[in-house]
C-alpha cells in the first residue's frame, strides 16, 4: 500500500478514531482523525485526504451531510462509510450519495485496508 | 391486522420498544468497535515483539485472539438484535422468511440449549420476499417453537425448515427425539388464543401433523399479503 496515501478518519468515538489512526500508522499509512463533522471539513480544507473513513452518526452533522460537504470540496475524495446500523440501508443511502462503499462496525482491519486500497486506486485514476 | 385504536396503541408501544432496542444495539456496536480496535492494537504491539518473554507473548496473543472471536460473535448477535428491533417499524413491510427466522433463532437457541436440545435448520434458498408483518410472523414462530420445545426430552433435536407452498411461504418445525413425559397435548396450540389471533392477523394457516398422540410437524403458511 502506498506510503503517501492520506487517510482521514471521522468518528465521534474518540478512542475508536485515535486507535485506528495508530494501527494505520503502524502499517505505514498516514492518517488523521476528527471527532466532529465541522472539524473534519476543516482538516479536509487544510490538506486534501485521498480516502475518508466516515461514521454516519455524529453530534453536530450527520455523516451524509459531511459526505456531501467533502464531495463539494473535492469530488474525487473517496469516502468509505462505517456504520453501526444493523442493516445495510444506511450504507446504501451513503453510496447513492457518492460514497465509495460502506462497512459495518466492528470492522475487520484487513478488510478495511483492502477497501481503502481499492478506494485509493479509484481516486488515483480519477485525479 | 385491524387499525382500531386499541391495536394502534399496542403497535405504537411495540414500535417504541423496537426503537429503543435499535438505539441500544447501535450503541453496543460502537462500543464493540472500540474494544476490537484496542484489542487489535495490543495484538499489533505483541506482533512487533514488544513483549520479550516468549511464553507471555504467546499467552497474550492467545487472549487477544479469544477476545476478537468473542467480539465477532457478539457483533453478529447485536446485528440480529438490531434487525429484530426494526421489524416493528411499520405494520407491514417486505421481508424474507429465512432472515426473520435466523434473526429470531439467535435468541431462541439458548432456550433449546438450556433443555439440552439441538436446533438444526434447512432453509430453502431464493424464497420470494413477501409483504406482511414480520414482527407478527416472529411471534407465531416463537409460539410454535416453545410449544414444540416442551414436547421433547433432553437430547432431542428441533428441525426448522422453510419453503414455498402455492402462493405462500412456509416454515416448518419438527421435534425429533423422545417425548417429554409431561408434553402438552395436541390441542395446546388450538387453545393458545394469542397464537390464534396472530395467525388471523397475518392470514396465516397453521397445520399440525401428528402420530401416536404426538405432534410430528407443525407447518405455518404465510401469504404475501392477506389483504391483497
Topology diagram in text:
The complex is a heterodimer of chains A (127) and B (228).
Chain A: E1 6-10, H1 14-26, E2 30-34, H2 37-46, E3 51-55, H3 63-73, E4 78-83, H4 89-96, E5 101-104, H5 109-126
Parallel strand pairs in A: 1-2, 1-3, 3-4, 4-5
Chain B: H1 5-47, H2 54-86, E1 93-95, H3 97-114, E2 118-122, E3 130-132, H4 134-149, E4 157-165, E5 168-176, H5 193-202, E6 205-211, E7 214-223
Parallel strand pairs in B: 2-4
Antiparallel strand pairs in B: 1-3, 4-5, 5-7, 6-7
Structure described in brief:
Chain A is of the alpha/beta class and 127 residues long. In chain A, 47% of the residues lie in helices and 20% in strands. In chain A, strand 3, helix 3 and strand 4 form a beta-alpha-beta unit.
Task: Give an overview in words.
- The complex is a heterodimer of chains A (127) and B (228).
- By secondary structure, chain A is α/β, with parallel strands linked by helices.
- Chain A has a single domain, classed as 3-Layer(aba) Sandwich (Rossmann fold).
- Helix content of chain A is 47%, strand content 20%.
- A 5-stranded parallel β-sheet of chain A has the order 2-1-3-4-5, with helices on both faces.
- In chain A, α2 packs parallel to α3.
- The model of chain A has no long low-confidence stretch (mean pLDDT 92).
- Chain B has 228 residues and is of the alpha+beta class.
- In chain B, 53% of the residues lie in helices and 20% in strands.
- Chain B is built from 5 helices and 7 strands; from the N terminus they run ααβαββαββαββ.
- In chain B, α3 runs parallel beside α4.
- Chains A and B meet through α1 of A and α1 and α2 of B.
Amino acid at each position: 500500500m502506498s506510503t503517501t496515501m492520506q487517510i482521514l478518519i471521522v468518528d465521534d468515538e474518540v478512542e475508536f478514531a485515535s486507535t485506528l489512526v495508530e494501527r494505520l500508522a503502524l502499517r505505514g499509512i498516514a492518517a488523521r482523525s476528527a471527532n466532529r463533522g465541522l472539524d473534519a471539513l476543516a482538516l479536509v480544507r487544510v490538506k486534501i485526504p485521498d480516502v475518508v473513513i466516515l461514521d454516519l452518526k455524529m453530534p453536530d452533522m450527520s455523516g451524509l451531510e459531511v459526505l456531501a460537504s467533502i464531495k463539494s470540496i473535492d469530488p474525487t475524495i473517496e469516502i468509505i462509510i462505517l456504520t453501526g446500523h444493523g442493516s445495510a440501508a444506511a450504507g446504501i443511502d451513503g453510496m447513492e450519495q457518492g460514497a465509495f462503499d460502506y462497512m459495518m462496525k466492528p470492522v475487520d482491519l484487513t478488510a478495511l485496508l483492502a477497501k481503502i486500497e481499492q478506494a485509493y486506486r479509484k481516486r488515483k485514476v480519477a485525479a | 391486522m385491524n387499525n382500531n385504536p386499541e391495536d394502534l396503541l399496542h403497535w405504537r408501544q411495540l414500535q417504541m420498544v423496537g426503537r429503543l432496542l435499535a438505539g441500544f444495539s447501535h450503541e453496543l456496536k460502537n462500543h464493540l468497535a472500540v474494544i476490537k480496535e484496542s484489542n487489535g492494537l495490543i495484538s499489533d504491539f505483541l506482533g512487533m515483539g514488544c513483549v520479550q518473554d516468549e511464553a507471555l507473548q504467546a499467552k497474550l496473543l492467545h487472549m487477544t485472539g479469544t477476545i476478537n472471536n468473542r467480539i465477532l460473535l457478539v457483533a453478529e448477535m447485536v446485528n440480529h438484535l438490531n434487525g429484530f428491533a426494526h421489524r416493528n417499524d411499520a405494520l407491514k413491510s417486505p421481508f424474507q422468511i429465512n432472515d426473520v427466522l435466523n434473526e429470531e433463532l439467535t435468541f431462541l437457541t439458548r432456550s433449546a440449549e438450556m433443555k439440552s436440545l439441538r436446533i438444526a435448520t434447512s432453509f430453502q434458498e431464493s424464497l420470494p420476499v413477501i409483504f406482511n408483518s414480520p414482527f407478527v410472523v416472529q411471534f407465531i414462530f416463537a409460539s410454535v417453537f416453545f410449544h414444540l420445545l416442551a414436547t421433547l426430552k433432553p437430547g432431542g433435536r428441533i428441525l426448522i425448515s422453510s419453503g414455498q407452498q402455492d402462493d405462500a411461504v412456509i416454515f416448518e418445525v419438527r421435534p425429533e427425539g423422545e417425548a417429554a413425559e409431561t408434553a402438552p397435548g395436541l390441542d395446546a396450540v388450538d387453545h393458545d388464543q394469542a397464537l390464534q389471533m396472530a395467525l388471523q392477523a397475518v392470514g396465516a394457516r397453521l397445520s399440525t401433523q401428528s402420530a401416536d398422540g404426538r405432534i410430528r410437524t407443525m407447518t405455518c403458511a404465510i401469504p404475501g399479503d392477506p389483504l391483497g
